[in-house]
Write a structure and sequence with these properties.
Strand order of the largest sheet: 8-7-6-9-10-11-12
Distance between the termini: 40 Å
Structural class: alpha/beta
Radius of gyration: 22 Å
Number of helices: 13
Helix content: 25-40%
Oligomer: single chain
Number of strands: 13
Shape: elongated
């Protein structure tokens, strides 16, 4: 028996890349993690050999390294894989994990409030041209009063649409309520209509949401089915002058078509996500006036990162007791192999 097992505490491999230990664990949370568990520092030694060495005794893995069936079979004590990046990647043999009773979770709920608030901020910006007119003022092109407000609209009483009622949508909807929207239409093929109605929204088809929304929030996750959910054809249904907020993943829309429609003046849009990150310096979107641009920064704020550490601690404690994790999002057997989000390594985390 190894030194790790002799210490009498459950063994946890802490390999959070592309996150860092310091980003997701406050000093107090890290102390509690080390007090309760024998922690193998996979940040100090991220090698594949280090992973293989601890597999026979590891209780949980914080992070999501490559975990084939063969690797999982060499981890008889493994009870949890806790992804702290925020996506279910296809580098784990999920069937093998489920067969062995391993809970696989990801930290997406930690980001939801931050992304929801940011999405509302983008909608307000689009409604009133805040950043556009800031740029104009700095360039000496400011227009006072009605000279710069002719395309301004109100959120209050507007028709709103939500595509994808998941973690972000559930946090965004209460933020919209003070604006007393005329209607909130929602399209989510993974949910029964009753769930949408109970939330106070109107279940609708994709086409009905696109055609009936003055403010459209695109919050859907990326799967094979949802890739280019919004395409060059159906985006023509979006009313002229509407405002589109893209806060989930760029692959959900035909990004080039969206940029072209904004450039033509069909509707205004804001995006926090890009097909390629970092976005190329010569991307056409950079020169489109009524397109608010952000660099994938909606969810990655200190409060969200530190919440991940707390969520991990809570779910580890539950799994020790033989209970299912509840703070992180639990992988669903029917859905987990459908996700197609890109690994965060393709983006700058700093």
């Amino acid at each position: 028996m190894s030194d790790h097992a002799n210490r009498g505490k459950p063994v946890v491999l802490l390999r959070p890349a592309p996150q860092t230990i310091e980003r997701i664990f406050s000093p107090d949370a890290l102390r509690r993690l080390n007090d309760r568990y024998t922690v193998i520092d996979g940040q100090a030694d991220p090698s594949e050999a280090a992973i293989d060495a601890c597999l026979p005794e590891v209780f949980a893995i914080i992070g999501q390294p490559d975990l084939s069936r063969e690797r999982l079979e060499r981890a008889p004590n493994l009870r949890g894989i806790l992804n702290v990046e925020g996506n279910f990647f296809q580098n784990v043999d999920y069937d093998a994990a489920f067969e062995r009773g391993v809970s696989v979770v990801a930290c997406m709920p930690a980001y939801a409030q931050a992304v929801a608030e940011f999405s509302l901020g983008l909608a307000i910006d689009l409604a009133r041209g805040i950043t556009r007119e800031d740029r104009a003022f700095r360039a000496g092109r400011e227009g006072y009063v009605f000279n710069s407000t002719q395309d301004a609209i109100l959120l209050r009483g507007a028709a709103m649409g939500i595509l994808g009622y998941g973690n972000i949508g559930r946090k965004l909807l209460p933020l919209l309520e003070p604006f007393r929207p005329a209607v909130v239409r929602c399209y989510d093929p993974w949910l029964p209509d009753a769930v949408i109605r109970e939330a106070g929204m109107l279940p609708a088809s994709l086409e009905e949401v696109l055609a009936g929304s003055t403010f459209l929030f695109v919050l859907a996750t990326v799967t094979d089915e949802s890739t280019h959910l919004l395409n060059a054809e159906n985006m023509q249904l979006i009313p002229r002058g509407a405002r589109v907020v893209l806060s989930s993943r760029a692959a959900v829309v035909d990004f080039d078509a969206m940029v072209s429609y904004v450039d033509e003046g069909r509707f205004l849009a804001a995006t926090d996500v890009w097909p390629e990150e970092p976005a190329p310096p010569d991307h056409p979107a950079r020169g489109v006036e009524n397109l608010v641009l952000q660099a994938h920064r909606a969810g990655g704020i200190p409060a969200a990162f530190e919440q991940i550490g707390e969520m991990v601690l809570d779910d580890l404690a539950l799994m020790e007791k033989g209970l299912p994790p509840v703070r992180n999002q639990l992988a669903a057997r029917e859905l987990v192999t459908r996700y197609r989000s890109k690994p965060v390594e393709s983006r700058s985390m700093e």
